[in-house]
Amino acid sequence: MLYIIQFIFAVIIGLYFWNLLRSQHGNRSAVDRESRREMERLQEMRRVALTEPLSEKTRPTSFDEIIGQKEGLKALRAALCGSNPQHVIIYGPPGVGKTAAARLVLEEAKANPHSPFKESAKFIEIDATTARFDERGIADPLIGSVHDPIYQGAGPLGMAGIPQPKPGAVTKAHGGILFIDEIGELHPIQMNKLLKVLEDRKVFLESAYYNPEDPNIPRHIHDIFQNGLPADFRLVGATTRMPQDIPPAIRSRCVEIFFRALTPEEIDLIARNATRKIKFDIDDRAVEVIKRYATNGREAVNIIQIAAGIAQNDGRETISVEDIEWVVSSGQYNPRPERRMPDRPQVGVASGLAVFGPNMAMVIEIEVATVRVARGEGQVTVTGVIEEEEMGGTGHRVRRKSMAKGSVDNVITVLRRYLGVDPRDYDIHINFPGGVPVDGPSAGVAVATAIYSALTGVPVDNKVAMTGELSIRGQVKPVGGIAAKIEAARWAGAERILIPKENWQEMMRKSQGGSYIIPVRNLGEVLRLALLTDAVEEARPGVRPLEVAAGGLRSARREHKAAQGSDRPAEDVGSVEETGTAEDEEEARERPARRPAAASPLAAGGSPRGGRPTPLSPGSGSAGPPPASPPS
Questions:
Q1: Sequence-distant (≥ 6) Cβ neighbours of residue 173 within 8 angstroms
Q2: Which of 81, 67, 77, 99 is nearest to 239 (CA)?
Q3: Is 427 in the same domain as 514?
Q4: Long-range contacts at 198-201 (CB < 8 A, ≥ 24 apart)
């Protein structure tokens, strides 16, 4: 009886395992059938292909096809194509070739026999805006992660309780370039991890399931946990943010390269090149419209692509101006934020320079109107500026008043203290027209020039653009974005560009496209270079102008000289040497500073402190053609 029972149990157990094997075989067959169907569907989908988008056709295939970035490409090559390549951050507006340049630079580096990049070097691209990660370390496409045994899909190693390291983009880029687009959007946690990888040139992963004494763990996993994954690469980050918006820790480890905004002429080249690649013709008037509205190459290509579709639907092979205008209107494109220099000199109107993006600047018009009021009852009104600014950092946020309004306060102090102008006797309205909120201190000298012009009736030279922060002592302080500002002023038609002395570089000495760059140290120099004293309008009520005759300023200098009782020319921090040469300025700088007690530190032609505002005399040398070589 016992044997019969044992036999029955054996049969039952056998049937159980037999059915289990059959089910596994059936499941495998079902999986195979499903896999075959999916493969057929994938192959069918791969046989279907649309035409290549115009944006892909126009993608640069060499550095020569990246238009308008000669200086940026030179810096990029120097940073990555030599024997010691550096980490790089590329700043610039969208659609100007940052990504294309990053793709091409590795190929050029491979061709350099001195470069450490081998022929097998990879270019790994990742977008910081989509590089999400799990705080528990389950998944991290940038740095890498560990697949612990408890997670689904652990496979045979998971069944054995073995953690599996998963390499990230930093390891995949080993020996090559890791390109992170929009690096400014990278999460702070990942940014800190990336900094550690850049220092160690390897990635160390951790897992609670790793036991260095476990003999069941394969050797390569022991090696990864103990020695780290290789991650020796060069980082190339691209961003449309300003440098101050990028964490200082990553900036200090990278060479910063700036790509500039494209000019209308460069937009013209891109638009015509895109039209040729799709075998269309385009009206010259249509290109002019594109130049007015497209701010970068991508926008120009998109406008061409839509307009070509309209022409093709109408059976035409030429893109007309009406097609482009319709695209601009339907796409709600805004005109380029570019302004030209005024067409004539005006009283109370000065041209400043402002930055509105990474390596992007423009000329801003500053206009001032004044009304004489009872003594000491004047008010100052500022419009067109940001009233309050909020800044955020890690764990804190702070607010401060407008820096532009602060620069106006500095100007008022300088006018009262040094130039003999008391703004309290006037209602002064300062306006920044254009609809673009303005902030920052760099408009200080332009504001001072416009106010002084409005108070004295002396027109401002319409061919002079200026930038610089003004201190309460009348000194012109350095500002940022000088290269972009100079370029914007040059394209706007400025013949003379006044910049702070501390921003001056020797390469600026030569004329750039017909524009002369002139360094200034104080407001006195700015006023003598910017005001047209030979075109003084009729004196305003309450304003007593100086004699409009040659030698007015020189007479004041002779009086200073006599007061000193010395044959040595009086040195005035507000004066400009007539010769304007670097040697004269160097000699003046080496002379000891000797001023009479009553002399104004800025001696810009104003009356004694507390007196009425007066215009400058023509002897200052502010009128006339630009010098052959600007003063250093």
A1: 122, 123, 124, 231, 233
A2: 99
A3: yes
A4: 198/87, 198/235, 198/253, 200/228, 200/231, 201/230, 201/231, 201/232
Mean pLDDT within 475-488: 89
How many structural domains is the chain composed of? 3
Closest CA to 389 of 402, 377, 380: 402
Strands (E), 301-357: 318-319, 349-357
Give the other-Cβ count within 10 Å of 285's Cβ: 12
- pLDDT by residue (tens digit) across 82-140? 999 999 999 988 889 999 999 999 999 999 989 999 999 999 999 998 887 777 667 88
Ranges of H-type helices in 201-263: 219-227, 248-251
Which residue do the tokens 């070509």 mark?
Answer: 308
Sign (positive or negative) of CA dihedral 544, 545, 551, 553: positive
pLDDT at 211: 86
- Which residues, other chains included, contact 442 with Cβ-Cβ below 8 Å and sequence gap of 6+? 352, 353, 354, 355, 467, 468, 469, 479, 480, 481
pLDDT given at position 354: 86
User: Distance between CA atoms of 110 and 225, rounded to whole angstroms?
Assistant: 32
The residue among 96, 48, 49 whose CA lies nearest residue 73 is 96
pTM: 0.71
d(CA 613, CA 537) in angstroms, rounded, equals 14
CB-CB contact of 626 with 443 (8 Å): no
254 and 275 together in one domain = no
Residue 115: give its domain's CATH number.
3.40.50.300
Q: Are residues 364 and 447 in the same domain?
A: yes
Angle, CA of 55, 274 and 333, to the nearest 5°: 70
Bridge partners, 90 (sequence order): 238, 257
Average pLDDT, the chain: 79
Asked whether residue 545 carries a pLDDT value surpassing 70, the answer given is: no
Residue 286 belongs to domain spanning = 264-330
Nearest to 168 by CA among 209, 224, 218: 224
Cα–Cα distance measured from residue 571 to residue 349, given in angstroms and rounded to the nearest whole number: 30
The pLDDT of residue 151 is 64
CA-wise closest residue to 419 among 319, 295, 567, 527:
527
Helix (H) or strand (E) holding 36: helix 2-46
Active site residues: 442, 485
Please report the pLDDT score of residue 261 as a whole number: 85
